[in-house]
UniProtKB/TrEMBL annotation:
The keyword Signal applies. Pfam families: Peptidase_M16, Peptidase_M16_C. GO terms for molecular function: metal ion binding. InterPro entries: Metalloenz_LuxS/M16, MPP/UQCRC_Complex, Pept_M16_N, Peptidase_M16_C. Residues 197-371 form the Peptidase M16 C-terminal domain. Residues 52-184 form the Peptidase M16 N-terminal domain. Keywords: Signal. It comes from Duganella alba. This is Insulinase family protein. Residues 1-19 form the signal peptide.
Length: 464
């Protein structure tokens, strides 16, 4: 999960040069009820009566970190929930939601799987029971599962045609190695192709259980009535066997500067990531780091974009981001450039990054970034769907509401001196880790100047 979630797309959004930031608004997370059912299921209920809509999510702490020797199993299982239930086939479910103009989606990431639905309040009585059925009684129809697996294998193969689709996967695999955080969420062509119905059923039984999940409902309902409905629909859900034990998912391995050079023989561009260890999603410095990173590479007028795009014309864009996980995270500068400009772009990216330590951030620059971040924040949590996603994020990553409620205070209290402390504490300075995807024969010597080089062809199955 990227650090952009706390402020919507603060780090990924762009702002036209010279545009005035949106007026800041104080933000506090709306009140919500937290309920623990006897079977261990966590329930969040947040009433909102501005529009007659309801957003519901089921979040299960089951992701790629639990795939072990079968990368892609969590992703296949999460998507396969939508293939039908014991009582309704896929076509019936699709028709029930589509007919009412409702949305139903599922999927899995590094650490959690999510099933989500959005529908009109008037359709709650019909669709919420179906939602509960999908979570608790998936059929994993074998014929449908085989078709889904084939589509996923094709998608993995196609993703490598565009390096920016897979850069983060290569980067994580490089940084975490064989630890759980290094497992590719999508899986590999070989690993996904080998998965079978029995694997999905076993994974579901192991991790999809009430004491490892939360149900979140946000929207136009009465809390007392919704609580009764959730208890009725999910109260009989039972777990089998012991709950999954907590596990150490790994730390970034960066004992020396390294370069992963991924050869794409037909490439006319070089795509790159530069960085190292980052922070966990619930790190107390999370909010203030967004402001600092906004200066470096979190908006259109950032240092990186100014230097690599606007001033030098070396690339169409450059940015930086903290990608957060529940136990740790990564930091990376990212960009791409025409093959002949690779050396210049990499050098300028490093030079610009060093400004954090050599120049620091002055008060005027910091004030501009603070206004930008505060202006971008409140609109990202206006709808029930957005708030349901936020609560799911908070559940999966153990984030307290104080991080949201203190957002404005934390941004306003950031000073140049405090920014310097954060830079020293959290931005990797030495032993940087680099991923380059491009024509290896043309950039191999350039790669050697940034660390010990390991080469991999992009056509190879897997990411390390």
């Amino acid at each position: 999960m990227r650090i952009t979630t706390i402020a919507g797309a603060v780090l990924g959004a762009t702002l036209a040069a010279g545009a005035a930031p949106t007026a800041a608004a104080e933000f506090r997370l709306p009140e919500f009820d937290t309920i623990q059912l006897p079977n261990g299921l966590t329930v969040y209920l947040m009433e909102r009566h501005d529009v007659p809509l309801i957003a519901v999510r089921a979040v299960v702490k089951a992701g790629a970190v639990h795939d072990g020797a079968q990368p892609g199993l969590s992703s296949l299982t999460g998507d396969a929930l939508l293939l039908g239930t014991a009582a309704h086939d896929k076509a019936s479910l699709d028709q029930a939601f589509d007919y009412r103009g409702a949305r139903l989606a599922g999927g899995a990431g590094a650490e959690a799987s999510t099933l989500q639905a959005n529908f009109a309040r008037a359709d709650s009585a019909a669709l919420l029971p179906l939602f509960a059925e999908i979570v608790q009684q998936p059929s994993f129809d074998e014929a449908e599962l085989n078709k889904l697996r084939t589509r996923k294998v094709t998608a993995i193969r196609q993703a490598k045609e565009a390096p920016r689709n897979v850069m983060q996967t290569y980067y994580r695999a490089m940084l975490f190695g064989d630890r759980p955080y290094g497992i590719p969420a999508s899986g590999t062509i070989g690993s996904v192709g080998a998965l079978r119905q029995a694997d999905v059923q076993r994974y579901y039984q192991r991790y999809y259980r009430p004491d490892n999940a939360a149900v979140i409902v946000v929207g136009d309902f009465q809390t007392t009535a919704m609580r009764r409905q959730i208890e009725s629909l999910f109260g009989a859900w039972r777990a089998s066997g012991p709950a999954p034990a907590a596990q150490d998912n790994g730390k970034v391995q960066a004992a020396q500067a390294r370069v992963l050079l991924v050869n794409k023989a037909d490439a006319t561009e070089t795509t790159f990531l530069i960085g190292g260890a980052g922070i966990a999603r619930n790190d107390p410095d999370y909010v203030q780091l967004q402001v600092v990173n906004t200066v470096l590479g979190g908006r259109f007028t950032s240092w990186l974009n100014d230097e690599l795009r606007v001033n030098s014309g070396l690339t169409y864009g450059a940015s930086s981001q903290f990608a957060t996980l529940s136990q740790t995270g990564t930091f990376a500068i990212s960009s791409f450039t025409a093959l002949p400009k690779t050396a210049a772009a990499l050098a300028l990216a490093h030079q610009t990054y060093r400004r954090l330590w050599e120049q620091g951030i002055d008060a005027a620059t910091l004030d501009s970034a603070k206004a930008y971040v505060k202006g971008q924040f409140p609109p990202r949590y206006e709808t029930s769907e957005q708030l349901a996603g936020l609560l799911g994020d908070m559940y999966a990553n153990q984030v307290g509401r104080e991080q949201l409620d203190n957002f404005t205070r934390d941004v306003d209290s950031l000073t140049p001196a405090r920014a310097k402390t954060l830079i020293e504490r959290h931005f990797p300075r030495d032993k940087l880790q680099t991923v380059l995807v491009g024509k290896a024969d043309a950039i191999r010597d350039i790669a050697k100047s940034y660390g010990e080089v390991t080469e991999l062809d992009i056509t190879a199955d897997g990411f390390r």
